[in-house]
Amino acid sequence: MSTIFNISNKIKLANYTPDADYAALKSYATTQGYALPSVSQQALQEQLVVDLKTAGVWDRLDVFYVFATDGDSDFATLNWKAPSSFQTTKVNSPTFTTNQGFAGDGSSAYLDTNWNPSTQGINYTQNDACFGVYRNNNINTTTRVMGQGYLSSIRDQSTTIQPINSLSAGASNPLNGGGIGLRILNRTTANDIAMIVDDTLETATSSSDAIINNNMGILYRGDGTSFSLSEVSLALAGANLVTQRTDLYNAINTYLTSL
What we know:
Blueprint: H1 7-10, H2 20-31, H3 39-54, E1 61-66, E2 89-91, E3 95-97, E4 101-103, E5 110-112, H4 117-120, E6 129-135, E7 144-149, E8 152-155, E9 181-189, E10 192-197, E11 200-205, E12 217-218, E13 231-238, H5 245-257
Antiparallel strand pairs: 1-13, 2-5, 3-4, 4-13, 5-12, 6-9, 6-13, 7-8, 7-12, 9-10, 10-11
Helix pairs in contact: 3-5
């Protein structure tokens, strides 16, 4: 990633211009009465947005959620790409921990993104898509940490994933979706999928089908079942991020380790 002059230093300069997208996020949160992050954390969050833009990630996203914040739990539900759209709904009170994110209870608590990529996806398409999370704990079960249904989801289990945008079972696709860290499932062509594991890549074959007509779910699989005990700090979805994976991981890791 190119070296970027840190936002916290920029604010000392008379010609500093705030990032418009992060400014819009703060403005919307303020109008809703949400508690903003601390000033020091706002500088870190703005830097994250700038880094994602430099990495070529920002314009490929449809939704982007940062749950790890010292703002309140309502601020944590906002979609940074478009703050007035696709705010997550906290269903059955997932646990919010400052600077860590939201955790499920394994039985009913989850986050509904209110975003259905089948009808509302822009960058997310049948043969070019991704969704994923940064997970803080290692839950070795067959429950799902994010997805739209049984055949398009990321398992908590550390051995396999289900494919993305496919109606074919994932047993032949032993990609590692478990463990702590960044896990993003990608559809790269009509016949190929890939899992970003932090800044590395695993690949497999799987034919694509029409995008499932469900909202994207977090801390469950999006169809009303398979509730997770994971804790997630961040979630995103959009076009595949295989090429941008190293800069993406570096930007996210820089933000999260600074909290």
